[in-house]
Write a structure and sequence with these properties.
The protein has about 250 residues and is an alpha/beta fold. It contains 6 helices and 10 strands. A 7-stranded parallel sheet has the order 3-2-5-8-9-1-10, covered by helices on one side. The protein has a 3-stranded antiparallel sheet with strand order 4-7-6. The protein starts with a strand and ends with a strand. The structure holds 6-phosphogluconic acid.
Length: about 250
């Protein structure tokens, strides 16, 4: 696993750098494997990336017919609920780009949690033709408690070694507690994991996560075995980082 930490000036630069990476990976995957599989993150940080991706010039640089979109996690709410990660992506991205509807693999948050987890797991196994996923791109956020996707500190889901999807309960801010999440086996087989971290409220947790590799926090358990891990962070979130640490650089 190669890890890089890229520090960009602000949230706008974060969105732009993230979009450029998305486009590059999508073109590369479509050309070499005939499809591009991306698991989208929820929360607020990726909204700017999704909006920019839906605009020219980036919109037309993506081979949407060959793109398959999934989610790293979803709240157990209907798809039109304000707390739905699908709804956020639909409003900022999906309705603006020509991705085929059958290529949008929504987590059915309206179902009972265990039923939704089983259904999403079946969808993944059908798509990847077996019990192992291999996402080309895994977009992840970082919670101020060190969670990522909906893998929260102390969760039994962190111990999952075979199932791709788990139903969890977790209180975080004012967000829905009942959630569906990819597990580490589904995340750590990705070709490229891209964390997006923005804002001063993440400075302390980002420093904690990056300064103690191998720690117990969920975000520290993300190690794509045969893939690349990139932390794309803005200056505000990077305020407490050791800029001399290996793999740290300013970029675009
Ligand atoms: C979710 C997200 C979650 C998010 C972090 C950071 O469903 O809430 O998947 O993991 O990425 O909580 O959220 P912000 O980007 O809003 O800080």
């Amino acid at each position: 696993m190669d890890t890089e930490i890229v520090i960009v000036p602000d949230a706008e630069a974060l969105a732009r750098s993230g979009v450029q990476r998305f486009v590059g990976l999508a073109q590369q995957a479509a050309e070499s494997r005939g499809r591009f599989t991306a698991a989208l993150s929820g929360g607020s940080t990726p909204e700017g990336l999704y909006r920019l991706l839906a605009e020219e010039p980036y919109r037309n640089q993506v081979p949407w017919q060959q793109v398959h979109l999934f989610w790293g996690d979803e709240r157990c709410v209907p798809p039109d609920d304000p707390g739905s990660n699908y709804r956020m992506a639909e409003q900022t991205l999906l309705r603006h780009v020509p991705v085929p509807p059958e290529n949008v693999h929504r987590v059915q948050g309206e179902l009972a949690p265990e039923q939704a987890a089983r259904a999403y797991g079946r969808d993944l196994e059908d798509f990847f033709c077996g019990p192992h996923t291999r996402f080309d791109l895994m977009l992840l956020g970082l919670g101020s408690d060190g969670h990522t996707a909906s893998l929260f500190p102390g969760s039994v889901a962190l111990q999952e070694e075979t199932r791709l999807v788990a139903a969890v309960e977790a209180q975080y801010e004012d967000r829905p507690a009942s959630r569906i999440t990819l597990t580490l086996p589904a995340i750590n087989t990705s070709r490229h994991v891209l964390f997006l971290v923005s804002g001063s409220s993440k400075a302390e947790i980002l420093h904690q996560v990056l300064s103690t590799p191998g720690g117990p926090l969920p975000a520290q358990r993300v190690h794509p075995r045969a893939g690349e891990l990139t932390w794309l962070v803005d200056e505000a979130a990077a305020a407490e980082l050791d800029r001399a640490a290996p793999g740290t650089g300013t970029g675009s």
